[in-house]
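help with this record:
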Amino acid sequence: MRASVLPVLIAISPALAGFDTWSPPGPYDVRAPCPMLNTLANHGFLPHDGKDITREQTENALFEALHINKTLASFLFDFALTTNPKNTSTFSLNDLGNHNILEHDASLSRADAYFGNVLQFNQTVFDETKTYWEGDTIDLRMAAKARLGRIKTSQATNPTYSMSELGDAFTYGESAAYVVVLGDKESRTVKRSWVEWFFEHEQLPQHLGWKRPAASFEEEDLNSSMEEIEKYTKELEGSNSTSGSQKHRRRLPRRRAHFGF
Protein backbone atom coordinates (compact mmCIF):
# COMPACT_ATOMS: atom_id res chain seq x y z
CA MET A 1 0.00 0.00 0.00
CA ARG A 2 2.68 2.49 0.97
CA ALA A 3 4.75 1.72 -2.11
CA SER A 4 1.76 2.29 -4.37
CA VAL A 5 0.87 5.74 -3.01
CA LEU A 6 4.38 7.12 -2.61
CA PRO A 7 4.76 8.29 -6.25
CA VAL A 8 1.47 10.16 -5.94
CA LEU A 9 2.58 11.86 -2.74
CA ILE A 10 5.84 12.90 -4.36
CA ALA A 11 3.94 14.38 -7.28
CA ILE A 12 1.60 16.50 -5.19
CA SER A 13 3.59 17.34 -2.06
CA PRO A 14 6.00 20.32 -2.13
CA ALA A 15 7.69 18.95 0.99
CA LEU A 16 8.71 15.84 -0.95
CA ALA A 17 9.29 17.57 -4.25
CA GLY A 18 12.58 19.14 -3.29
CA PHE A 19 12.56 21.36 -0.17
CA ASP A 20 14.71 18.80 1.63
CA THR A 21 16.64 17.82 -1.47
CA TRP A 22 19.48 19.95 -2.82
CA SER A 23 22.61 19.36 -4.86
CA PRO A 24 24.81 21.73 -6.87
CA PRO A 25 24.98 21.51 -10.66
CA GLY A 26 27.11 18.74 -12.10
CA PRO A 27 29.60 19.05 -14.96
CA TYR A 28 26.93 18.51 -17.63
CA ASP A 29 24.22 20.63 -16.02
CA VAL A 30 23.50 24.20 -17.15
CA ARG A 31 22.50 27.21 -15.10
CA ALA A 32 21.14 30.73 -15.71
CA PRO A 33 21.95 34.30 -14.69
CA CYS A 34 18.73 33.97 -12.61
CA PRO A 35 19.48 32.77 -9.05
CA MET A 36 15.91 31.68 -8.41
CA LEU A 37 15.62 29.39 -11.41
CA ASN A 38 19.03 27.96 -10.54
CA THR A 39 17.81 27.38 -7.01
CA LEU A 40 14.72 25.55 -8.21
CA ALA A 41 16.91 23.33 -10.39
CA ASN A 42 19.29 22.64 -7.50
CA HIS A 43 16.32 21.56 -5.39
CA GLY A 44 14.82 19.48 -8.18
CA PHE A 45 11.65 21.50 -8.68
CA LEU A 46 12.96 22.14 -12.20
CA PRO A 47 15.00 19.50 -14.05
CA HIS A 48 18.36 19.33 -12.31
CA ASP A 49 20.26 19.46 -15.59
CA GLY A 50 18.54 22.77 -16.40
CA LYS A 51 17.72 21.67 -19.94
CA ASP A 52 14.59 21.60 -22.10
CA ILE A 53 12.25 23.04 -19.48
CA THR A 54 8.56 22.98 -20.40
CA ARG A 55 5.74 25.37 -19.56
CA GLU A 56 4.18 22.83 -17.21
CA GLN A 57 7.46 22.29 -15.37
CA THR A 58 7.91 26.05 -14.97
CA GLU A 59 4.39 26.60 -13.68
CA ASN A 60 4.56 23.67 -11.26
CA ALA A 61 8.03 24.54 -9.97
CA LEU A 62 7.22 28.16 -9.15
CA PHE A 63 3.91 27.20 -7.59
CA GLU A 64 5.16 24.29 -5.52
CA ALA A 65 8.34 25.97 -4.30
CA LEU A 66 7.21 29.59 -3.91
CA HIS A 67 3.40 29.55 -4.18
CA ILE A 68 3.53 31.78 -7.26
CA ASN A 69 0.31 31.91 -9.28
CA LYS A 70 0.60 29.65 -12.31
CA THR A 71 -0.55 32.39 -14.67
CA LEU A 72 2.39 34.54 -13.62
CA ALA A 73 4.69 31.55 -13.98
CA SER A 74 3.35 31.03 -17.49
CA PHE A 75 4.22 34.64 -18.40
CA LEU A 76 7.74 34.04 -17.15
CA PHE A 77 7.95 30.96 -19.35
CA ASP A 78 6.82 32.99 -22.39
CA PHE A 79 9.66 35.43 -21.88
CA ALA A 80 12.20 32.68 -21.21
CA LEU A 81 11.19 31.00 -24.46
CA THR A 82 12.34 34.06 -26.43
CA THR A 83 15.93 33.34 -25.40
CA ASN A 84 15.99 29.89 -27.01
CA PRO A 85 17.77 30.25 -30.39
CA LYS A 86 16.09 27.04 -31.60
CA ASN A 87 12.66 28.64 -31.16
CA THR A 88 11.08 25.50 -29.77
CA SER A 89 8.56 24.92 -27.01
CA THR A 90 11.17 24.66 -24.25
CA PHE A 91 14.13 26.63 -22.91
CA SER A 92 17.30 25.72 -21.08
CA LEU A 93 18.66 27.77 -18.21
CA ASN A 94 21.81 28.82 -20.07
CA ASP A 95 19.64 30.25 -22.88
CA LEU A 96 18.73 33.01 -20.45
CA GLY A 97 22.33 34.23 -20.57
CA ASN A 98 22.01 35.42 -24.17
CA HIS A 99 22.86 39.08 -23.69
CA ASN A 100 20.30 41.86 -24.02
CA ILE A 101 17.28 39.64 -24.52
CA LEU A 102 16.24 39.16 -20.92
CA GLU A 103 19.72 39.20 -19.36
CA HIS A 104 20.94 42.77 -18.87
CA ASP A 105 23.77 44.90 -17.54
CA ALA A 106 23.74 46.07 -13.91
CA SER A 107 22.75 42.72 -12.43
CA LEU A 108 22.57 42.43 -8.66
CA SER A 109 24.77 39.32 -8.65
CA ARG A 110 26.42 38.91 -12.06
CA ALA A 111 29.11 40.82 -13.92
CA ASP A 112 28.15 42.74 -17.04
CA ALA A 113 28.71 40.81 -20.27
CA TYR A 114 31.59 43.17 -21.12
CA PHE A 115 33.54 41.85 -18.11
CA GLY A 116 32.92 38.13 -18.40
CA ASN A 117 30.54 35.23 -17.83
CA VAL A 118 27.02 36.43 -17.02
CA LEU A 119 25.91 32.97 -15.92
CA GLN A 120 28.17 32.76 -12.90
CA PHE A 121 27.60 34.35 -9.52
CA ASN A 122 30.04 37.23 -8.93
CA GLN A 123 30.87 37.88 -5.29
CA THR A 124 32.33 41.34 -5.95
CA VAL A 125 29.15 42.49 -7.67
CA PHE A 126 26.97 41.02 -4.94
CA ASP A 127 29.12 42.60 -2.22
CA GLU A 128 28.27 45.98 -3.73
CA THR A 129 24.57 45.10 -3.78
CA LYS A 130 24.69 44.21 -0.09
CA THR A 131 26.01 47.65 0.84
CA TYR A 132 22.60 49.13 0.03
CA TRP A 133 20.79 46.86 2.49
CA GLU A 134 20.79 48.54 5.88
CA GLY A 135 20.13 46.41 8.94
CA ASP A 136 18.82 42.87 9.31
CA THR A 137 15.62 43.48 7.33
CA ILE A 138 15.41 44.53 3.67
CA ASP A 139 12.48 46.61 2.44
CA LEU A 140 11.56 47.85 -1.02
CA ARG A 141 13.28 51.18 -0.56
CA MET A 142 16.57 49.36 0.06
CA ALA A 143 15.87 47.19 -2.97
CA ALA A 144 15.36 50.34 -5.04
CA LYS A 145 18.68 51.75 -3.76
CA ALA A 146 20.50 48.55 -4.67
CA ARG A 147 18.99 48.51 -8.15
CA LEU A 148 19.86 52.14 -8.80
CA GLY A 149 23.33 51.79 -7.29
CA ARG A 150 24.20 48.88 -9.55
CA ILE A 151 22.95 50.78 -12.61
CA LYS A 152 25.13 53.77 -11.74
CA THR A 153 28.18 51.57 -11.18
CA SER A 154 27.64 49.79 -14.47
CA GLN A 155 27.18 53.06 -16.32
CA ALA A 156 30.42 54.39 -14.83
CA THR A 157 32.59 51.32 -15.43
CA ASN A 158 31.25 49.48 -18.46
CA PRO A 159 32.11 51.19 -21.79
CA THR A 160 29.47 49.12 -23.57
CA TYR A 161 26.72 49.59 -20.98
CA SER A 162 23.23 49.26 -22.37
CA MET A 163 19.76 48.78 -20.97
CA SER A 164 16.83 48.04 -23.22
CA GLU A 165 13.32 49.11 -22.29
CA LEU A 166 12.47 45.48 -21.69
CA GLY A 167 15.56 44.95 -19.54
CA ASP A 168 14.82 48.13 -17.61
CA ALA A 169 11.29 46.96 -16.87
CA PHE A 170 12.61 43.58 -15.78
CA THR A 171 14.92 45.16 -13.21
CA TYR A 172 11.90 46.45 -11.31
CA GLY A 173 10.35 42.99 -11.11
CA GLU A 174 13.65 41.41 -10.14
CA SER A 175 14.21 43.95 -7.39
CA ALA A 176 10.72 43.52 -5.99
CA ALA A 177 10.77 39.73 -6.19
CA TYR A 178 13.51 38.90 -3.73
CA VAL A 179 11.72 41.00 -1.11
CA VAL A 180 8.08 40.03 -1.59
CA VAL A 181 8.47 36.46 -2.87
CA LEU A 182 11.12 35.32 -0.41
CA GLY A 183 9.73 37.58 2.33
CA ASP A 184 6.39 38.92 3.49
CA LYS A 185 4.25 40.35 0.69
CA GLU A 186 2.07 42.26 3.17
CA SER A 187 4.84 44.14 5.01
CA ARG A 188 7.06 44.01 1.91
CA THR A 189 10.11 43.09 3.93
CA VAL A 190 12.44 40.10 4.06
CA LYS A 191 15.19 38.93 6.38
CA ARG A 192 18.54 39.94 4.97
CA SER A 193 20.09 36.61 6.01
CA TRP A 194 17.58 34.74 3.85
CA VAL A 195 18.37 36.84 0.78
CA GLU A 196 22.12 36.63 1.20
CA TRP A 197 22.02 32.85 1.61
CA PHE A 198 19.74 32.48 -1.40
CA PHE A 199 21.94 34.57 -3.71
CA GLU A 200 25.26 33.15 -2.55
CA HIS A 201 24.28 29.47 -2.34
CA GLU A 202 21.31 29.23 -4.72
CA GLN A 203 19.46 27.29 -2.08
CA LEU A 204 16.20 28.02 -0.25
CA PRO A 205 17.11 29.21 3.29
CA GLN A 206 14.97 26.75 5.23
CA HIS A 207 17.65 26.23 7.87
CA LEU A 208 17.37 29.97 8.65
CA GLY A 209 13.62 29.77 9.20
CA TRP A 210 12.25 30.40 5.70
CA LYS A 211 9.09 28.54 4.71
CA ARG A 212 7.02 28.34 1.56
CA PRO A 213 4.55 31.26 1.72
CA ALA A 214 1.09 30.30 2.94
CA ALA A 215 -0.59 32.83 0.63
CA SER A 216 -0.17 32.70 -3.13
CA PHE A 217 1.75 35.42 -4.96
CA GLU A 218 -0.58 37.09 -7.43
CA GLU A 219 -0.37 39.54 -10.31
CA GLU A 220 -1.52 42.45 -8.14
CA ASP A 221 1.22 41.68 -5.61
CA LEU A 222 3.82 42.00 -8.34
CA ASN A 223 2.35 45.15 -9.84
CA SER A 224 2.00 47.04 -6.55
CA SER A 225 5.51 46.07 -5.46
CA MET A 226 6.99 47.23 -8.75
CA GLU A 227 5.13 50.51 -8.44
CA GLU A 228 6.62 51.02 -5.01
CA ILE A 229 10.13 50.28 -6.30
CA GLU A 230 9.52 52.83 -9.04
CA LYS A 231 8.28 55.43 -6.54
CA TYR A 232 11.38 55.04 -4.40
CA THR A 233 13.60 55.18 -7.48
CA LYS A 234 12.11 58.51 -8.49
CA GLU A 235 12.69 59.84 -5.00
CA LEU A 236 16.30 58.68 -5.07
CA GLU A 237 17.02 60.01 -8.55
CA GLY A 238 14.96 63.17 -8.52
CA SER A 239 12.07 64.17 -10.71
CA ASN A 240 14.22 64.49 -13.87
CA SER A 241 15.27 60.84 -13.86
CA THR A 242 15.26 58.89 -17.12
CA SER A 243 16.58 55.56 -15.83
CA GLY A 244 13.70 53.17 -15.27
CA SER A 245 11.13 55.88 -15.88
CA GLN A 246 7.38 55.42 -16.05
CA LYS A 247 7.64 56.40 -19.71
CA HIS A 248 9.62 53.24 -20.39
CA ARG A 249 7.63 50.85 -18.28
CA ARG A 250 4.18 51.80 -19.53
CA ARG A 251 5.04 50.26 -22.89
CA LEU A 252 4.92 46.82 -21.28
CA PRO A 253 1.81 45.27 -19.75
CA ARG A 254 2.57 45.24 -16.04
CA ARG A 255 1.39 41.71 -15.57
CA ARG A 256 3.97 40.57 -18.09
CA ALA A 257 6.89 42.10 -16.23
CA HIS A 258 9.66 39.68 -15.36
CA PHE A 259 9.64 38.64 -11.72
CA GLY A 260 12.57 36.28 -11.69
CA PHE A 261 15.85 37.37 -10.08
